[in-house]
Known about the structure:
By secondary structure, the chain is mainly α. The chain is 68% helix and 7% strand.
Amino acid sequence: xxxxxxxxxxxxxxxxxxxxxxxxxxxxxxxxxxxxxxxxxxxxxxxxxxxxxxxxxxx
Length: 59
């Protein structure tokens, strides 16, 4: 398995999942967000150091 392809797919997949992450007001002062999209955002945050490292190696 190609690590670079797998890594790129993980970043792209997480980005696509959380692209339209929105809060939905419940009308009682609370809000709801899509759990899967929030997990994708957390995945992107966790991948950020590797993305920065990969980009710095390319320059």
